[in-house]
Amino acid sequence: MPLINNRFTEFQESYRNKPYERQKDSLEVQLSSFLCSLVPPKKVSAATAEDIVKFLISKDAAGKQKLHVRSCSSKTCSCPKRLAAGTVDSYIGKLRAIFNRLGRTGFSNPLAHPCVKKYLKFVREEQAQQPLPPRQAVPLFYDKFTRLIAYLRGLIAEGSALSPLNRYLLVRDITFFVIDFYTGDRASDLGRLKADQLFRLKDREGFLLNFTFSKTRRAGQFRPFALLRIPNVPVCPVFWLNYYIAACGSLGVPLHGEYLFRSSEHKKFVSHRPFGGSAVSARLQKYLKAAHINDGETPHSFRVGISYTLKGLGCTPEQIAQYVGWRSTEMALYYTRRSSASASLQLLERVTLNLTSTSSPPALQLSHQGNLQRISYS
């Protein structure tokens, strides 16, 4: 029984640590607080479809989609802001799962009521009529990337008075940003990379990151990504990975069996949870503002920036999709539709195996499997 109970606890912790589950739990708390403020107050289990729509309307207070009135002609107007239609749709999906968990399934689930579907249709039509161009994350290009890393390196150099936790967070952040820039991966996917999925090339000139689980990748699928050493040491991914592993060893942060990048727990100690999502965004925004180079970039800006850079290097949509890990070229065309820039190949020379060969992804990335060695974190 002790072994069974330990395994059951491991299952529960893994399930609760999933980003989607944490988002649902947070949304349920917000819904409960909203229902308690009604007259008379209600419990979540007694909520109706009208209550759900009113709750979604209350969430507009945090919206960023500005709806301009006909008489508006100013970019800095006071027109109301709303939640984006996609965000509303996402909330509806999470709320439906919450009520299913409470036992209100099928037609007894308030999210199945036509009122909720009509509200989503109303929001989509309202925003579709706005004369707004499609929005895309602000690209983060190589020049700003080097300035960001230079700022963080300065913090490390001046951080003799930092606590062990703050030193770990700083080294974690700079290593995470460097790898995210070169891989073009989603921040949430990179954050869920396990330390045991990182392999070192036997010539010690690079690492292989074996992405096996992400938003679009599930069990049985994988995307190995090789990072090679580059001459520009301050932004070299191999240098920072080695630095990060050494720092974790000296600071007493175990990596074996854990996520490679982990978040902190109440700013007191390193947790077992992955570093990703809103935490990455908050840290990136903090550093960009402190360095006075903030133009609204988000973690997704790494993905957009590398797509533009690859197109500037002359890569085809098929090669861009191969590099970033998209299944089709449609996403590559979408992300680079506004780019007509050209760039020197020296920008990313020998950054990854993906740029130094025209082989197909499996042949390219798996050809070095015999030259790998597992990293000892002891």
Automatic annotation (TrEMBL):
Residues 135-349 form the Tyr recombinase domain. Residues 19-139 form the ALOG domain. It is found in: Nucleus. Keywords: DNA recombination, DNA-binding, Nucleus, Transcription, Transcription regulation. Pfam families: ALOG_dom, Phage_integrase. Gene3D superfamilies: Intergrase catalytic core. It comes from the Eukaryota. InterPro entries: ALOG, ALOG_dom, DNA_brk_join_enz, Integrase-like_cat_sf, Integrase_catalytic. The keyword Transcription regulation applies. Its main location: nucleus. The keyword Ubl conjugation does not apply. Belongs to the plant homeotic and developmental regulators ALOG protein family. PANTHER family: ALOG DOMAIN-CONTAINING PROTEIN (PTHR31165:SF2), PROTEIN G1-LIKE2 (PTHR31165). This is Tyr recombinase domain-containing protein. It comes from Porites lobata.
